[in-house]
Each structure stands twice: as C-alpha cells, then as structure tokens.
Amino acid sequence: ETIDQRHYLVGGELKEWKGNTTEVHSTISSTENYAPTLLGSIPDMGEPEAMDALQAALKAYGKGQGAWPTMHVKDRISCMEVFVGKMKTKRQEIVKLLMWEIGKSLPDSEKEFDRTVEYINDTIEDYKELDRTAAKFQKQSGVYAHIKRGPLGVVLCLGPYNYPLNETFALLIPAIIMGNTTIFKPAKHGVLLITPLLEAFQSSFPKGVVNIIFGRGRAVAAPIMQTGKVDVLALIGNSKSANALQDQHPKSNRLRLVLGLEAKNPAIILPDADMELTLDEVIAGTLSFNGQRCTALKVVYVHDDIKEQFNSKFAQRVDALKFGNPWDEGVKLTPLPEPQKPAYVQELIDDAVAKGAKILNKKGGQHFDNYIWPAVLYPVTKDMRVYQEEQFGPIIPLVPFSNIEEPLDDMAESNYGQQVSLFGKDVYALAPLIDTLVNLVCRVNLNSSCQRGPDVYPFTGRKDSAQATLSVHDALRSFSIRTFVAFKDN
Ligand code: G3H
C-alpha cells in the first residue's frame, strides 16, 4: 500500500495539494528480481507555497508580539506535551517507514524513534529549568536586571536523511519551544515518515508556529532565503547545501547559523591498545548504519607495531557481519537509500586501488544494486580520494603510522574537527595526547567509538564540521538570545 501524501501544513491549515508530485522509492526490493519499491509520492512545491509558509511564520511571530513568542512558558510546554503524546501513538508507523525509506535496521529505527521522544521530554524539562533560573533578579553596580532567554524569530529548518526524525527534531523542537516560529522541509529520503505527524503538528500548536512544506531545496528553501526574512538557518547535512542557502540571504551576516555538517573522525590505535575491544569499537564506529553517520569513524590510523594483527582480524570481522533487509534478525549491513551511492563508493575504491591500496577483505566492494559489502582499504595515503572526502558509506581507509605526530598533523590540517577515538592503555602516554586532541576536535573518546549521545552532552565541531551546539541543553541556547530589562537603584 503506497502513501500518496497530498497535504502540507501552512498557517495552521492542512492544505490540499493539487499540483505535480514526485514519487518516493525505496532501494529495498520487494521482489526477487531486483526492482526499487514504490512507497508513495509527495507534493512537488515551488515558490508560491514557500512564500505562503514564510508569511504564516512571520505572522505567527508578529513583531515579537505574536501569540507564540509571548505565550506563557507553561502554555508553550503544554502544547509540546500534547504533541509528544500524539507522536507516541505513531511509533509503529514511523519505525516501518524508517526501515523502508532509509534502510535503517529495526532496532536502530526503534532507537531513533524512542530517542526522539526522550529528546523532546528532556528538552521540556531543561526548558523548565531555564525558566526557573531566569525568574531571578540580579543586581550589579546599582543596576537591577531580569535576564531571560528570548526567541530569535523565524527559523528555516532542514534535516538529514540519515536521521530524518531524530536530528530534524533536534533542530525543530528546541527552536519551537523557545518561542520561534518555523518552516520545516523534510529530507529527500525519510520524507514520508513526516506524514503521520502532520495532524499532530497542526492540532498541537497555534497557527503558523510550525509550517511544513515539501519539494526540492532549490525550489522552496532558496526563495525563502532570498527574502532576507529568515533569522535562523538550521540545517544538518552538508556544507555545500548550507553555503548555497546562506548565500541566498541578502544580509547573511544577520543570519544565525545552527549547522551540523561533515566530519572525518579518525580512530588512532596505539601499540598497547586492547585488541578485542578496539576491534569491536572500530567495527561499530565505522559501520553502524553502513557508515552513514556524521559521527562515523572515517579514517583509521593503525600503529606499525600492530598493523598486521589488527588489519587481518578487522577484515575478517567485516566479512562476518550479517547483511540483509532492515527487519532481518541480527542484521548489521543494509541497503543504502541513495541510488547513486554504489557508483560513488566504487569510484573511491577504484581510485584507491589505482594509487596502490588493496582491498583486504574477501567480500569488499561486492554489490548487488544498493546492497554494498564494505571495503577495507590498506594502505591508504593522502593522495587518495577516500582519505580526503567524507565517504559517508561502507568504505574503510586504514592508514599506517609510526609516529603519533603523523595523525596529529593530519588532524591539524583537516577541514573538519568533530571527534576522535583514541585506543591505548598507558594513561601516562594518553594524558598529554588528550590535551592536544581536545584542541583539535570537540570530543575525545577513549577506547570507544565516536558518537553523538548521550544527548545531554554538547554536540558540536570545529572548522567546517559545525556552527553552534546541539544537545538537549545547548540547543535551547542556540535558538535563543539573552535579553533583559534593567533599572537603576535610585
Ligand atoms: O549523522 C550524524 C549523527 O549526529 C550521528 O549521531 O552518533 O547518534 O549516530 P549518532
């Protein structure tokens, strides 16, 4: 049964779309003779609908005196509680769509849904705390002040395909609760799973607070930016899209950016690392959701003293992973949602092999349509594309090193700076290294793979990896500004 999504949410109304539509396919085949599965279709909107959504968001914000930005904190929280209550009833439907639309395994799809509900509940609690703190008056040098956090205005929100629910909501929910009004365009893959939530958004929030439109970024997001009336660009995805949208804004220096972008997180494996633990963590770090995570380990530096042992065990472990469809028991590798990804992965493999790397695992690179077996490449050198590009897929570059300065130099030169995983046992050797690494990235993981969670910890990056910080606690701050009323002690 297909989902032909014909409604969009603007100004509190679920409007019916009568124009052109775009088909949504899954790369998972439902027949024995491979063929992508038709899941449904979505509206192919353009500038008029984008402008309607913008007008609705502007009207709901008013001059800062709209019903939403001025609503009492308790009432805003009640709206969010109503929404999350309705959302919880859609778990089964959304989990199923996560599996079909983006190929995420059943346990990971369930986790994405549950983590999102928890994120919303924790945001509500943190917001209550923020409000309690703001209630206090301060007095400094004879001036009383009541300092609060206020909204920024209209937020344009675009989420990524790898976490179309969780990461999109990690932007949208804090933006809404802080009193901003929003326009949200779902990701290309993972778009139908927003359908079951349209009514919940419509009935839980006042008119125009959340506006949801569908279409290509160029057709709907770009014209919104060109008006110069957006106050915040909130995007998780790639810097190319973020830059292109930012450039459309006529006064982009006024634009607040809340961006989660690319990363090339390294694992550095020292000679005394615990071999079994390191193998487990590097497998999870490189290949969870087929490596399609910004936090995935995307380059693995292995010390010369242990490279033979590590490389051969790692290659065997990769070939022993279970491949299948998302709902198969114990499955670790699943089909990739982007139809063009196998060709890209193949290009990276060909380039590396032409420049001297070998595929270490027997099944490496084998593929049947979008079912690709991960390729372990060794030795990877700086001139190879897989070393330079964020592969965001099942291909693992192993880089040998003899001196710790080699990976440190690479990290210092890199355009990215999100996280690192450091494997080793000697605390006296690790301590000075940690001191250096925290100045190159924002999170150092000791003997464990990189990850975003727990969601209360700051999630950010240096250089081209991020702008602003996302986490339960920090996102409320990223989507607000400190304002205050002051008076003198006369
Ligand atoms: O794509 C980037 C995500 O933020 C990764 O999140 O570490 O929880 O998988 P995760």
Automatic annotation (TrEMBL):
Keywords from the named record: Oxidoreductase
Signal peptide (UniProt feature, chain positions): none
Gene Ontology MF, one: oxidoreductase activity, acting on the aldehyde or oxo group of donors, NAD or NADP as acceptor
InterPro entries cross-referenced by the UniProt entry: Ald_DH/histidinol_DH (IPR016161), Ald_DH_C (IPR016163), Ald_DH_CS_CYS (IPR016160), Ald_DH_N (IPR016162), Aldehyde_DH_dom (IPR015590), Aldehyde_DH_Superfamily (IPR050740)
Keyword Oxidoreductase (UniProt): yes
Residue span, Aldehyde dehydrogenase domain: 26-480
Lineage: superkingdom: Bacteria
CDD domains: ALDH_F11_NP-GAPDH
This protein's record includes keyword Metal-binding: no
Entry's family note: Belongs to the aldehyde dehydrogenase family.
Protein's name according to its UniProt entry: NADP-dependent glyceraldehyde-3-phosphate dehydrogenase
Organism annotation: Aggregatimonas sangjinii
